[in-house]
Amino acid sequence: MKRKALSNVHSDNLYEQIYDYIIERIGRGVWGAHDKLPSIRTLATEFNVHRLTVFKAYQLLKQNKKVYVKDKSGYYVMPENMLLIDSQQNPIISAHVQESSLSEIHQVRADYQFSIALLDPNLLPNHYFSEYIKKVFNLYPKVLGTYSSIQGDPELREALSRYFTDQSHFYLTPDELLITSGSQQAIDLIARGLIKPRDTVFLERPTYSPAIDVFRRQGANIIPIEIHPHGYQLEQVEGLMREHKPRLFYLNPTFHNPTGYTVPAEQRKTLVEMANKYQCLLIEDDPYPDIYFEKKPPLPFFSYDTAGCVIYIRSFSKYIAPGLSIAAVACRPSIMKYLLNTKSLSDSGTPLLNQKIFLHYFFSERLQKHVEKLRIALEIRRNIMEEELSATGWKWATPMGGFNLWMKLPESTPMDRLLEKSIEKSISFVPGSIFDSLKEHQSWIRMSYSYLNETQLRDGLQRFVHIYHSLTSTQI
Ligand SMILES: Cc1ncc(COP(=O)(O)O)c(C=O)c1O
Questions:
Q1: Could you tell me which residue ranges the HTH gntR-type domain spans (predicted)?
Q2: Does the domain formed by 91-122+369-473 have CATH 3.60.20.30?
């Protein structure tokens, strides 16, 4: 049998290397959910180590819920996402529920898409787009024949560094900005560039669900941090930082997805100091800062950071131009070098055409005025949603910005059947457990008011409430 080599001969971390080896293979899909893993004896022979070393690796995998044991039969891969609801009877439902992923829910076709946290395309100034495209081809006739630099178009980075300084009090140079193809790519680059298996990562609970999947795939040890309508319990966060020494804390502190909550300014300052003290990176994901309804949200964490412990991700997809998929990452040079390296393995730079169109469109007077109208249109839609649901008795905190209403339905709600029946009637929403790394929040749901027009909102919500009542009134 061909022996596998371990990189380090210090016996006290051999088991960690075997742990990493197994995690890496699970991550690549070599071993899938419920697959049987090699026996202790096989791995011990393959790696030329004592069986106890492999046993120790398996114990740690078990403890971290990466594998489970069947009596006398061996170790098996723990399914990443346990079944949310038991809906095997319905192939549409079971397809997305088993995966338990947001992207699967988004693929469900529905007339009333409350599941999509994206701007109604009718709210964008679509008629004017071609003007910007023509302008870009006139100004840069060779734009299609050129790659962007990996870090992103210098002209765009220059403009964005001035913009962030004016708007958000960031003091940075264009070299401290990286342009990515959406913030999803940025999260992925950060995870791949900075996280090794077994690193501890703090994630808000609930959180943007693809972030859970990305950090899990890296083999991170995930610790959930509760987010409340007024932020975090900082004493608890500090205790957990002291205990777990996390590598990073991924947060979405402004009009948080899915809850709509915003972390207050005082907490931002304190958390940056805390992160600095415990050497924990804060990954600030900020896709909605301009969509506020009454007053501007507090300045980003990045503006309080003097020690380089915050990585700021700003997506321009959600309400500027989803079709261009442009995001910017702000970070200090010591981090930038890792991100550039990882980005160069991911693509040859975000498409230059998209960056140039974005540059001319985003900094136009028309767009900046348009954002004011968007705020009003979305506030009206939020009000409609609250009004239509006001008689249900469901609980929520009014979102002061962003796209989503995060609601608690009664504990007794048969969530699986509610989703199934809603999809049958062409209505989609996102069950709360999808946003929870612990797969709880079973009686919560996220409904987005951003994608449907006012008439569709009213109509869809009335139908949804009707489905809910017809299900719950027939319950014994
Ligand atoms: C918090 C959060 N992060 C990241 C993303 C992904 O954004 P992008 O389209 O720029 O990849 C979203 C999209 O819904 C989001 O809500």
A1: 12-80
A2: no
Q: Is 315 in the pocket of ligand 1 (CB under 6 A)?
A: yes
- Is the N-terminal amide bond of 297 cis, ω within 30° of 0? no
C-beta 184 within 6 A of ligand 1: yes
Q: List residues bridging with 179 in a β-sheet.
A: 328
Report pLDDT for 4: 67
Q: Which helix (H) or strand (E) holds 315?
A: strand 310-315
Quick: pLDDT tens for 168-191: 999 999 999 999 999 999 999 999
Q: pTM for the complete prediction? A: 0.83
A 10 A CB-CB count for 168 gives 16
CB atoms within 10 A of CB 286: 22
Q: How many CB atoms lie within 10 A of CB 71?
A: 5
Domain 11-77, what fold? Arc Repressor Mutant, subunit A (1.10.10)
Provide DSSP, 42-80: HHHHHHT--HHHHHHHHHHHHHTTSEEEETTTEEEEPPS
CATH number of 127-366: 3.40.640.10
Averaged pLDDT for residues 369-374: 92
Domain definitions of the chain by residue range = 11-77, 91-122+369-473, 127-366
- Residue burial 431-468, b: 16+ Cβ < 10 Å; e: rest: bbbbbbbebebbbbbbbbbbbbeeebbeebbebbeebb
- Supply the residue whose CA is at minimum distance from atom 16 of ligand 1: 257
Which of 265, 200, 256 minimizes the C-alpha distance to 228?
256
Q: Is the CB of 402 under 6 A from ligand 1?
A: no
d(CA 157, CA 171): 13
Same fold, 91-122+369-473 and 127-366: no
Q: Is the CB of 252 under 6 A from ligand 1?
A: yes
